[in-house]
Write a structure and sequence with these properties.
heterodimer, A: rod-shaped, B: seven-stranded antiparallel sheet
Amino acid sequence: MDDSTLNFHAYAATLQQVMADAIQKAEDLQAEANAEREAMFADQEKTRDLLREAENTAQRKAEGDLSVQYGELKQKMIASLLRKLKAAGRTEAEIEVLEKALSGKR
Amino acid sequence: MRKMLAENAKAAAAVVAGAQQGRDDAAVARIAAHKTLLETTQKIEALSAGFYRKHYARIKKDHQEQLNRRFAAVLLEHELTPGEVLALLDLPEAQVIEISRRFGYTAWEKEEFEAQKPEAMHHKIGDSYARVTFKDEGRGGTATFQLDQTVCRFWYELAGSNALLLIDAPAAEKWEAHTGIPLALREKVLHFIGERAVADNAPGYRYRIEPTTIVIY
């Protein structure tokens, strides 16, 4: 083997090694990037779960509270309506009939 | 050869740099996601309170609308007019119209009537509504026409073989005295009654207007 052949082999080996090292490094970095993304997805999922749970709890509480207050709300709206009917000139007898009907007492 | 080695090293460095950039971007995104999680955790009580207020307001509004719709039906059932219902309840006009249709009301062009008889529109704030109801009393009955506050009744009876029903229509010269409705609206009111009589009680039949009768045939 002469010197030029020796140099060519060394050259080829250097090229391959440099690129192999680079690819290995890139693969390591890609693995780290994947781990970062997994961690990001996990945090995003936790955030969504937290918000979903908070919203569901708040909605259930609002439904429960308003369910309890429904009767009171209905009575207030009926009272307001009866005041308007009286102001519009309806007689006491008419208002009494309407109050029963609006309350569902007929 | 040295030049090629340099170019090869440059290409290898670019591969690493691209991967490094991808890793750095992913790290930045992960840090941002974690920061959002921490902030959300810290603010969860305030966020929950906001969710509660939002749902409470929405559900309360739904309940109010549901109750107002029920009240509208009760008031219409007790002979209040759609115009009165509209003035009394916090309901969009379209909903009042929709509920009123269940009680036989149809929107009426208000300008025509309002211009000639403004006192009759005293309680009205929206469009006018008209309806016809029929009350059977044996072989005849009463057709009641209602236009806002104005109510007038027309006797009807079952006809012989050539027709189904005859509804009395006051002659033109007696119209205003009998109905309180301007004579100019007589034709329109009679057609309205005829149309409703066919649509509500005699599908498949027709009607025609004669000098003192609406004939359903």
